[in-house]
Specification:
The protein has 14 helices and 9 strands. By secondary structure, the chain is of the alpha/beta class. A hairpin with a 4-residue loop joins strand 8 and strand 9.
């Protein structure tokens, strides 16, 4: 007689975890869960090789912190776009921009991924202008075509109808009459629609899903972070969030203390990344938090002026927490005027990276 293998049901597995059970009862399941070599990274691949290799893909709960204007929304949007291009469903919750603004940023980023550079005004103000140069019209059309090719599994939620709750309260399965679906309910629906366990949720920013009814800001932030963790654990979705840095972070040498809000924003995520601007790189990592020298101020002024004309800004992405990976930082170049990042370091700015020993 042939030997029959019986797979335990989900209920049987749950019952086993609730009991005081020796580890031998779990080893068979554990071995089946181990990789077969088909996956390159632990988490979702974004196609941004330098970052994928740095953190082994997006996994569980990833937080990206940065000062206002540092490009954290651009970077996380670009990572989300890369995940969608790999065929994984993505839901973007951008609660500071409209859906149209978000799409324009995605068109910019897509153009950048294709080796093209577009100003937002060219997209928003001149696409239907009959005098627009054909090369720019072609760039926009090509980016839109690529965006359309992944559009059936890329979702955008803005704050037009209000800010959604992260997870359902108590035992609610469906939103009440006139109430927005929660992020949790959206995730469950998207996973069922695409018949997949893999999904990326981008929340930009985590401060925007803090419950306004809670008058204690610290408590509200702790609750928001705990709800994001509960969302990840209950749906097994990969969560990517942005967070503002404190105003005083420019003079700080404490990367952990730079993230705005409670320490839960550091301890709860699986991975915490910090975007460092040239001014921060100079002050924090070269000058030890001291004021910039006149020559350094001139360098920064020239760099910012160059960036406004489409030049690249040297940035550092520092990993201050990586549960499954190391914490080696990487150098990036931010083309802010064109809305995208690259993993290449411009050697003209090597001084900005010397304290990190980056080449």
């Amino acid at each position: 007689m042939s030997k029959t293998t019986f797979e335990p049901t989900q209920e049987q597995r749950k019952e086993k975890t609730l009991q005081l059970t020796p580890i031998n009862a779990f080893l068979s399941d554990y071995k089946r869960e181990l990789g077969d070599g088909s996956k390159k990274y632990r988490g979702l691949e974004t196609g941004f090789t330098a970052i994928d290799e740095m953190i082994s893909g997006l996994e569980k709960f990833v937080l990206v912190g940065g000062r206002s204007g540092s490009g954290k929304s651009t970077l996380t949007g670009q990572l989300a776009l890369g995940v969608a291009r790999k065929g994984t469903p993505v839901i973007i919750y951008s609660l500071e921009m409209s859906r149209s603004e978000i799409i324009s940023k995605l068109v910019q980023a897509m153009a950048g991924l294709m080796g093209n550079q577009l100003y937002l005004n060219t997209i928003n103000l001149r696409y239907n202008d009959p005098t627009l140069e054909n090369k720019y019209k072609t760039m926009i059309d090509d980016a839109l075509e690529q965006l359309a090719s992944i559009g059936d599994h890329l979702y955008i939620k803005d704050a037009t109808n209000g800010v959604p709750k992260v997870i359902a309260y108590s035992n609610e399965k469906q939103p009440k009459q006139g109430e927005l679906p929660t992020i949790q309910q959206d995730v469950v629906e998207a996973k069922a629609r695409h018949n997949t366990e893999d999904i990326l949720v981008l929340i930009d920013s985590i401060q925007d899903v803090v419950e306004p009814s809670n008058g204690n800001q610290t408590q509200a932030e702790v609750e928001a972070v705990n709800r994001v963790v509960a969302l990840q654990q209950s749906t097994n979705a990969t969560i990517l969030c942005t967070s503002q840095k404190n105003k005083g972070s420019i003079n700080s040498t404490d990367s952990y203390g730079d993230i705005m809000g409670s320490m839960s924003l550091i301890h709860k995520p699986t991975t915490v990344l910090i975007l460092e601007t040239p001014k921060e790189i100079l002050k924090k990592n070269i000058n030890g938090g001291k004021e910039l020298k006149d020559t350094q101020r001139k360098d920064i002024d020239e760099l910012e002026a160059n960036a406004k004309q489409g030049g690249g800004t040297p940035m550092v992405l520092e990993q201050i927490k990586g549960r499954y990976t190391g914490t080696k930082p990487i150098g990036l170049t931010f083309y802010g005027a064109y809305g995208y990042f690259t993993g290449e370091i411009d050697q003209n700015y090597s001084d900005f990276f010397e304290s990190y020993n980056l080449k």
